[in-house]
Amino acid sequence: MKNCRSLTGQGGLATVEMAIVGSLFFIILLGIIEVGRLMFSWNALNEVTRRGARLAAVCSVNDTEAVRNAAIFNGEVIAGLTPEDVIITYLDTAGAPVVDTNTNFGDIIFVRVSIADSFQYRLLIPFYYGWLNAPAFSTTVVAESLGVSPPGAGTPTC
To answer: Other CB atoms closer than 10 Å to residue 42's CB: what's the count?
Structure first.
């Protein structure tokens, strides 16, 4: 009989243990999901700069708005990323920005696309709705046609 009483005295212990272990498990699981979202967003930001640089290298220097919209996948990948967050810079041989791209068109050798420092990633952690500053993402490529193509070849759609 003594053994039966000791077992009945701990009847709700498994429920309490399950509540504690379950809470810790779900906190860790949600943390892993949030880190996965963060890594996806940072990878997407890197892809935005790569795609923008590739497009800016072959599109006209006057089509920067079209390049920015295409680079951000028309705003469908990362919430809160706008065309104004994509910075396109045309560089000369020394890596200095070309000030007037129309007048000094022949000086453009490189194209750099970066994400503005003002872009912030929104965390979805329960009870903590904070923001995280994204690191600097930048891609530099060699300028190719810049929208100028030989006669009869057609122009790329930007």
So the answer is: 16
What are the residue ranges spanned by the domains of the chain? 2-142
Beta strand 138-142 with 131-133 is: unpaired
pLDDT tier for residue 129 given thresholds of 50, 70 and 90:
confident
> Beta strand pairing status for 110-115 and 138-142?
antiparallel
Using left for φ > 0, alpha for ψ between -120 and 50, and beta otherwise, residue 79 falls in beta
**And the tokens for 72?**
């951000």
Q: Mind listing the pLDDT tens digit for each residue in 25-63?
A: 999 998 899 999 989 999 999 999 999 999 999 988 888
86 Cβ contact partners less than 8 Å away, ≥ 6 residues apart: 48, 49, 52, 67, 68, 71, 72, 113, 114, 115, 116
DSSP state of 94: T
